[in-house]
Amino acid sequence: MGEGDKATIIVHSGEFDKVYSALIIGTGALSMGMDVSMYFTFWGLERLKKNELDKGPLSRMNFLGLGKWMMKRKLKKSNVREMDDLIEDFNELGGKILACDMTMEIMGVNKEDLRDDVITDYCAVGTYVKEAKESDVTLFI
Amino acid sequence: MVESKKVDVLGETCPVPLVEMRKAVRKASPGDIIEVIGNHPESKEEIPMAVEELGLELMSLDEDGDQWVIKIKIPEEDRRGRR
Fold first, then answer.
1. Which of A70, A93, B7, B34 is most buried as measured by Cβ atoms within 10 A of its Cβ?
2. Which domain holds residue B65?
3. Which residue of A has its CA nearest to B50?
């Protein structure tokens, strides 16, 4: 792997639309031949709990869930692949999913609460910085 | 043995055509040919970009109305080692 072949994405947000964007960018980058690591932290980490991936609210115009309901309908109508399938694609294409250890501690999240089937590893900030230094694309979502 | 594989992404939208193309490439062997059939307009531009990034060979791009067919060849010698 030469330079420019790696992307690191921090998923700090837990909102539906932001996690969706992160997963689309992640699978897209893998498809273009990059190595991709996604670091889930703070509100993003909540989405790695079992059955929580698509449970976040919309970041704007959620309207107590009505906005999200409409958005989900539109996504379905446009035949956009569901988040659960996208995260499987991400894994299948060799992407890494990292869960932030410190967030787990402060938010009282145990490993048993999280999706072991998609998480590659648990880590701290140093791992991210090291990977980000080797990356040409790094995003904070 | 050289195989020819079809990837049907008709009716699919971003990022599925790219993702399915990539999955097929990962499973293919050197010399294999992958035929991607779709109608998502952006993917017609983006799959050839990915083909270049992945160090593969773009054999052809044919269009019929909104529909397109992209033929990709996996090089015998994988120089860039990206697959």
1. B34
2. 4-73
3. A32
